[in-house]
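Thread: sanity check for a docking pose with adenosine-5'-triphosphate

Original post by kr_44:
Hi all, I'm comparing my docking run against an independent structure prediction. Below are the sequence and the ligand SMILES. Could someone generate the full complex and paste the structure tokens? I mainly care about where the ligand ends up relative to the chain.
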Amino acid sequence: MSLLVLYNPVCGHSQGHAIFQHIVLPRLAQHGHTPAAVVATTHPGHAGEVVLQHLAAADGPLTVVLGSGDGTLHEILAALHSGAPTGTRTAARLLSFVLVPCGTANALYHSLFPPSPDSSQELRDSQTRSLDAYLTDGPRARPLTLAQTVLLDGAQQPTGASIAAVVASTALHASILHDSEALRPTHPGVERFKLAAQQNLTRWYHARARLAVAHTPVPNAGIAPVVEIFSPAARGFVPYTGPGAAPDGTAVTLDGPFVYFLSTVNADRLEANFRIAPCQSTFPPLPESSPPTIDVVVIRPLRDPALLEESEHARQAFAEKSMAILTAAYRDGAHIHARYGGAGEVVEGGTGDVVVEYFRCNSWEWIPDPSDQYAHLVCVDGEILQVEPGGKAVNTALHRADGYTISVYS
Ligand SMILES: Nc1ncnc2c1ncn2[C@@H]1O[C@H](COP(=O)(O)OP(=O)(O)OP(=O)(O)O)[C@@H](O)[C@H]1O
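Reply from moderator J.T.:
Ran it for you. Here is the predicted complex with adenosine-5'-triphosphate included:
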């Protein structure tokens, strides 16, 4: 097994170099691991180039000790996605990551090692838990689900593609990631996401979404292949039978406008405490033998019984509710229990309609209204893509992509 050490020295609070020199490299040496190379990235895109070079230099599995945030991991996956052809290889090649969180949000690391209220502060702050897992003989690397996004134009021709290990989104989250990049120099921490959220909270996004499951029933999977929704009353997923559901349950059409449309694979949180997709850990997706799934978190303002139609007043009124709902995600994912009271007030409990629609499916499509420029933004692990007017984005969960199985030590 070949070992590469790679870190981004400028992400997050620019601590990568110190962490690797003082902690990671000494620990690897202590355990007798000699990397083929130790590389600090020098420019955007560099991480992907380095991993492609190492994969080309030797066949067989490769382990990368990666000091970065989610964006650098994404760059590597994107490089594989657009990289060299995988030739005649029939078995997927193994690429495993040991994650050392040096970035801003570190969503995947914090999802793998969530801060538990019972754990010590030292454990909560630890940046070496994936490294510890790698250096001990016990746990093996766990395979990641990947989410491929393809952009199609109005003639159904591909105009772009990317791949996520954490998040693919449109609407508010895509706008936040789009705008927060400009705030990076002044706000290197997660507060830049909150600032960008405030800038975008009153916007509604005009689009139609379609969620779907793979049609083929899975032998012995024990579940019917239908789009599911989280039910606070059932305290679990149930088949979605609401407006827009296809008669056989395999697809759901959601009409806008939307405030929020975000999907995750592997991750139940986007920051240490922002647990936006809690079912990823509370009800983990079925193992690798089943079709890979995506969790989709949706907020559609016109489901609010207090709002009859879109207006400036309605957008302002709903912005306060959006803020309250998203803030509840910091309370261990409590937002998925929020419901509407009779006058449209947001309550936890009761029997009203859920405020957040939380779906589980295998793929989604996002078809923006051509007149809404902001609805054309798509975020894939922080990379911002743009749907062409008249086009759409299609996101599909995969167990492996481009001839690689991607794993992380946890
Ligand atoms: N030497 C470098 N100089 C400037 N930018 C770099 C360099 N090396 C890598 N980068 C860029 O840094 C960006 C930020 O890295 P990354 O996304 O991993 O961290 P982050 O944004 O701080 O954390 P997170 O994605 O977890 O919020 C990447 O998009 C990458 O292209």
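The mean pLDDT is 92. Hope that helps with the comparison, let us know if your pose agrees.
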